[in-house]
C-alpha cells in the first residue's frame, strides 16, 4: 500500500496530523514506538500533573484542531490522555503501535519508512517524534537491554530494582515502583542511584516521594554511584555493574564496592538528547549556532533547517512539534534566521494542521 502520508510519532502533533489527513481524505499511517498514542506524554508527565491549554503570547490565533485542545479548566494528564485515546478510537485513526521508527529510504516517487515492524511506503513523511529521545547509558560493554522508560511498573514487583538518574523523571519512576510494590506487599527495595552526591528534584516531586517513603516504601539511595560495565554472566544474563563508594588511593589503586543488577531490573532516566544524531542519520541538514546568531538556542546547539512549510532539506519530509522546539533555522525569502518554536501542545497541533494543508495542496498538483 502506498500511503499519501506516513506520520512518525503519535503525540499531539502526530495525532492531529493523522486526524487532519483523515478529514482531508488523504491516506495515512501513524507510526508510534510506544504502546499507546501520547506515549511521550505518558512517559514524561508526573502522575496527576495538570495539563494547560497554554498559548505562546505572540500567537494570536486559537487551536487549529479544537478536538485535541486541552480543556480551559486544566484536567489531569491521565484524563487528557484517556480523552485522546477515546478520540483516536472513535475516529478510527490508522495507527500502528510498538513500531520504532528507524530510517527513511528514498525511492522513485515514494519514501520507504523503516520501522521495527517493517517498512511502510508514503508519498510524504511527517516527523513528529517529539524531543524526548531518551539518552543511552554509556558504559563499557553493551547496555542496550536497560529500560529508558517505565512502561509497566508491575514488571518490577518481586524484583530488586535499580533506577539511575538524579532528576524529576527518575524520581517519578522511583515513586511509581515504590507505590506498586507497596500495593502488592513486596518488600524488595528500589535502589536509586545518581552519579552526583545530591539528587535534584522539585518540591512537589520531593513531597510525593516523602509520602511514599512514610507509607512504607523501601528505598535505598546510592549517591555518587557510577554505572561502569555491561556484561553477560555465566548464565547468559545481561548485567549492569554499578560502582558505589569509590576511593582512589594515592598510588593509583582504587577501592570500591560494586553492585551487579540483571539489566531487566534497571531503568536509566538520565535525560533526553536532541534529535541531531537522528537527523544526521536521515541526512537532514542542521546548522550549528554560533555566538550572536541564536537567541533561543545556545552556542553549539544544532538546529534543524526548515522552510516556512516545515519541510526539511530532504524534500517531501516534514518535521513538526516538539521535535523542532525550542527553535529551528527557518529559510524564507532567501535568508536563514533562528525561529522560536515553543514546546507546547498548541504549537504541535497547529504545526500539524498547517503541514497537512501544505501536503494536501502539493498532492493535488502532482
Ligand atoms: C512534564 C511536562 C509537562 C508539560 N506540560 C504541558 C502543558 O501543561 N501544556 C502544554 O501545552 N505543553 C506541556 N508540555 C509540553 C508538551 O507536552 C509538548 O509540547 C508536546 O507533547 C509536544 O508534542 P509532540 O507530538 O511534538 O511530541 P511528543 O508529545 O513528545 O510525542 C512524540 C511521540 O513520538 C513517539 N516517538 C518517539 N520516537 C519515536 C520513534 N523512533 N519511532 C516511533 N515513535 C516515536 C513518542 O513515543 C511520542 O508518543 C509539557 C511537557 C513536559 C515534559
Topology:
Blueprint: E1 2-8, H1 12-24, E2 28-31, H2 39-44, E3 50-51, E4 75-76, H3 77-90, E5 95-96, E6 101-107, E7 110-115, E8 118-127, E9 133-134, E10 161-164, H4 168-183, E11 190-194, H5 203-214, E12 219-223, E13 226-232, E14 238-248, E15 254-262, E16 266-268, E17 272-273, H6 276-281, E18 286-288, E19 302-307, E20 317-319, E21 327-332, E22 335-340, H7 345-365
Parallel strand pairs: 1-2, 1-8, 2-5, 8-20, 10-11, 10-16, 11-12, 19-21
Antiparallel strand pairs: 3-4, 6-7, 7-8, 9-17, 13-14, 14-15, 18-19, 21-22
Helix pairs in contact: 1-7, 4-5
CATH C-level of the largest domain: Alpha Beta
Cα-atom radius of gyration: 22 Å
Overall geometry: globular
CATH-assigned fold name of the largest domain: FAD/NAD(P)-binding domain
- CATH H-level name of the largest domain... which superfamily? FAD/NAD(P)-binding domain
Uncertain runs: none
The total number of structural domains is 2
Mean pLDDT: 93
User: What is the helical fraction, as a range of percent?
Assistant: 10-25%
- Look at the helices and sheets and give the structural class: alpha/beta
List the bound ligands: flavin-adenine dinucleotide
The CATH architecture classification of the largest domain is 3-Layer(bba) Sandwich
Largest pleated sheet: 7 strands, mixed
Number of strands: 22
In DSSP terms (H or I, runs of 4 or more residues), the helix count works out at 7
Distance between the termini: 19 Å
List SSEs in N-to-C order: EHEHEEHEEEEEEHEHEEEEEEHEEEEEH
Strand fraction equals 25-35%
Keywords: Flavoprotein, Oxidoreductase
InterPro entries: FAD/NAD-bd_sf, Ferredoxin-NADP_redctase_2
Organism: Seleniivibrio woodruffii
Protein name: Thioredoxin reductase
